[in-house]
Design a protein that fits this description.
This protein has two domains: 241 residues, 4-Layer Sandwich (Metallo-beta-lactamase, Chain A); 141 residues, 3-Layer(aba) Sandwich (Rossmann fold). Helix 5 packs across helix 9 and helix 8 packs across helix 12. The strands form five sheets. It has a seven-stranded mixed β-sheet. By secondary structure, the chain is α/β, with parallel strands linked by helices. The chain has twelve helices and 22 strands. Bound molecules: MU-OXO-diiron (FEO). MU-OXO-diiron binds next to helix 2.
Length: 394
């Protein structure tokens, strides 16, 4: 199935309804699309391939429009295999095609794929004429990998934006923002950018500034995952700007683990106290909230409170995994509250505190450590922590 998105520019991507975990990490209950764009002019270009197992479907989509053997340029905005692992398939069919990518992509491509095609590396803002259409390549490093670029189709004012402005969710024939369920798109787009690109938010901000500075009069944004924006392309630009902003929100998110409910008691008590103080609060139990949802809700929250029982003298494993994400995804420093329970020696909260301090985050007082069930005195400490959180968020 293909779809013309502008004169001579066709969507030829595929829906993935099969993969349960994107990057083998993040749940994608609504699937995902691997978007690829065919540009027909005096020269023929394909922008992005698809994930390998979908190569045949993708090639069939291209064949609905043109014989893939006639492709002159294979433009790879990004080397991650969700967009490139069908490269060996097209390389066999279009042996005269030239690969186009950034200089940093060249070694990556050779390390991933042994294909016998010519390559041409493009500098930032370099142009390539296809005849009546001009492609301009805009380097956007670290959105998502260091070699990433976007392709601007000058005459049609179409930005093929790669991972930037992407979203989880298969398209199911609704390719455009005026056809899709935008509530779902907003949720899945924010979850996508938070789970996949959080480590590189400052590069997203750089890329947004660069696009604005270039003064591109964008008519259509066509990313490499998710819907294409033709009705209101600035909607997703503004949303990405907001979601990647370093400014934290004036709210609090409690992330806790529990085995037998004692840590839950503390979490619920804290939530109640915060609500009574007028604090906007979200809560995630790590055993039931999928990690990408927790990351999405905490990446910009003003204060994170982490609660954990001690497990084998360490924090609850799923809490430890969450803290690992805070580090790996380079969460902006902010005050962090800690509470937890233990049966005998403890150790979970102490190890959390050491790690949080190493991340240069302030640990809020009081840190609450409870043996067994919370006493009245310890319950009072929860009130003190809630007051401290409320005062910090004013
Ligand atoms: Fe969709 Fe970074 O690849």
């Amino acid at each position: 199935m293909h779809r013309e998105i502008a004169k001579g520019i066709y969507y030829v991507g595929v829906d993935d309804h099969h993969t349960e975990l994107f990057e083998n990490l993040w749940r994608i209950p609504f699937g995902v699309s691997y978007n690829s764009y065919l540009i027909i002019d005096e020269k023929i270009a394909i922008v992005e391939t698809v994930k390998g197992p979908w190569a045949d479907e993708w090639l069939d989509n291209i064949r609905e429009i043109v014989d893939p053997a006639k492709i002159d340029y294979i433009i790879l905005n990004h080397m991650e295999p969700d967009h490139t692992s069908a490269l060996p398939d097209i390389a066999k069919i279009a042996p005269n095609a030239t690969l186009i990518y950034t200089p940093r992509a060249s070694d990556m491509r050779k390390s991933f794929y042994d294909v016998d095609l010519k390559e041409h590396t493009v500098e930032d803002l370099e142009e390539l004429s296809l005849g009546t259409k001009t492609l301009k390549f805009v380097h956007v490093p670290f959105v998502h990998w260091p070699e990433t670029m976007a392709t601007w189709v000058v005459e049609d004012r179409v930005l093929l934006s790669c991972d930037a402005f992407g979203a989880f969710g298969a398209l199911n024939g609704k390719h455009f923002d005026d056809e899709a369920n935008m509530e779902l798109v907003e949720r899945e787009s924010r979850r996508y950018v938070s789970a996949i690109i959080t480590s590189y938010f400052k590069f997203v901000q750089n890329a947004l500034k660069k696009v604005k500075d270039l003064g591109l009069d964008i008519k259509i944004i066509a990313p490499s995952h998710g819907i294409i924006y033709r009705k209101n392309p600035m909607w997703v630009v503004n949303k990405y700007d907001e979601w990647s902003s370093p400014e934290l929100e004036k709210n609090c998110t409690i992330v806790f683990g529990t085995m037998y409910g004692y840590t839950t008691r503390l979490a619920m008590k804290l939530k109640k106290e915060l609500l009574e103080l007028g604090v906007e609060v979200k809560v995630h139990n790590v055993s039931y909230s999928e990690m990408s949802r927790i990351i999405t809700d905490t990446v910009r929250t003003g204060i994170i409170v982490i609660g954990s029982p001690t497990y084998d003298a360490f924090p609850f494993p799923k809490i430890w995994a969450y803290v690992n994400e805070l580090q790996g995804k380079r969460f902006a420093p902010r005050p962090i509250g800690l509470f937890g329970t233990f049966g005998w020696g403890g150790g979970g909260v102490k190890k959390l505190q050491k790690t949080i301090e190493e991340m240069k985050c302030e640990v809020l007082e009081p840190v609450i450590r409870v043996r067994g069930r919370p006493s009245e005195e310890e319950t009072e400490l929860v009130k003190d922590l809630a007051k401290e959180i409320a005062s910090r968020l004013q």
